[in-house]
Design brief:
Elements (H helix, E strand, L loop, with lengths): L1 E5 L4 H12 L3 E6 L2 H4 L8 E4 L13 E4 L11 H24 L6 E7 L13 E2 L9 H12 L1 H4 L4 E7 L1 E3 L1 H12 L14 E3 H13 L4 E5 L7 H11 L12 H4 L14 E2 L2 H5 L9 H8 L2
Parallel strand pairs: 1-2, 1-4, 2-3, 4-5, 5-7, 6-11, 7-10, 8-9
Helix pairs in contact: 1-7, 3-4, 8-11
Length: 298
């Protein structure tokens, strides 16, 4: 397949591109700074600037993948929150303009969203949500909802649209960070009865590959089908990374709320299930946290 990726140089994008290349797909990365990333990949990958027109390079594109977006892992000032939102919503129109300018007639768009879609300030941690549930009322839920709504313009172009509502992605770098934190027993923020919606990086890449070859559309939660609370999550991690102090501190909710709007990144975590993902027939490679951590530690 010929695949165009917006945001192919980030954490998920880098692993995805290498996986697609290994399967002999042709990949073109849409980037604001192609020269900066041209040597990032060992295999041959084509780059193109957002302002470019190259109909010959982009002919016969089969699928478009939208992964771009301002990182939420930074201090949420008013300007940062605007960038987080606009980098996802405004980008949809910009991407469609790019497709039309380059005469790309792909029939598939895969859009990166997040399970923050369900974040609700007054939701009980044991409330269960899935892809059939309504969006929440937090800033992150607004970002996810407007991001997905902005992709309706691709529906109007008769494109099949898949929304990836991604949880906390476990990667080798995440494993190293947790290992370092656990070594010194750095307190972990959060409420221990809240749910930790994780997914292994290989399952994010695996489901994108699945969406490329199966006639599915709409939202799909990319989180492990076996729910786990913050308490169980970090106690499982302690089996793999032994700290100096044999306990982990869970800070009270009222203290976490003192950091402002960013507190919703570790609060308001309902029990989220990948109902439509499982109904689609996708088989998760990593359902158990122990197995995922063993894989990341290799």
């Amino acid at each position: 397949m010929n695949i165009l990726i917006a945001g192919g140089t980030g954490l998920i994008g880098f692993r995805l591109v290498n996986s697609l290349i290994a399967q002999n797909h042709n990949v073109v990365i849409l980037s604001r700074n192609p020269l900066k990333y041209k040597n990032k990949f060992q295999s041959k990958v084509n780059f193109i600037d957002w302002n470019a027109t190259d109909i010959e390079l982009l002919k016969n594109i089969d699928a478009v993948i939208k992964l771009s977006g301002e990182s939420v892992a930074q201090l949420w000032t008013k300007s940062v929150k605007n960038r987080i939102l606009n980098s996802r919503v405004d980008l949809s129109k910009k991407l469609l303009d790019f497709l039309k300018r380059n005469q790309i007639n792909s029939n598939l768009l895969i859009n990166a969203s997040a399970i923050g879609f369900y974040s609700r300030k007054e939701m009980n941690s044991n409330d269960v949500v899935d892809e059939y549930s309504n969006s929440g009322d937090s800033f992150l839920s607004k970002v996810c909802r407007l991001n997905e709504e902005s992709c309706k313009i691709f529906d109007e172009e008769n494109m099949r649209v898949v929304h990836l509502r991604i949880g906390m992605v476990l990667t080798p770098s995440f494993s190293l960070l947790i290992g370092f934190s656990s070594l010194f027993s750095i307190p972990i923020p959060g409420a221990k009865n809240y749910y930790f919606p994780w997914v292994h990086l290989e399952d994010v890449v695996g489901f994108i590959d699945y969406a490329l070859t199966n006639n599915i559309e709409g939202p799909f939660n990319l989180i492990t089908p076996e729910s786990i609370t913050h308490k169980d999550f970090y106690h499982t991690i302690r089996k793999h990374y032994r700290g100096i102090i044999p306990w982990i501190l869970f800070l009270p909710v009222f203290i976490i709320k003192m950091i402002g709007d960013m507190s919703e990144m570790v609060l308001y975590g309902p029990k989220t299930m990948p109902k439509r993902t499982l109904e689609s027939g996708y088989k998760f490679k990593f359902k158990k946290l122990d197995k995922a951590l063993q894989n990341l530690g290799k």
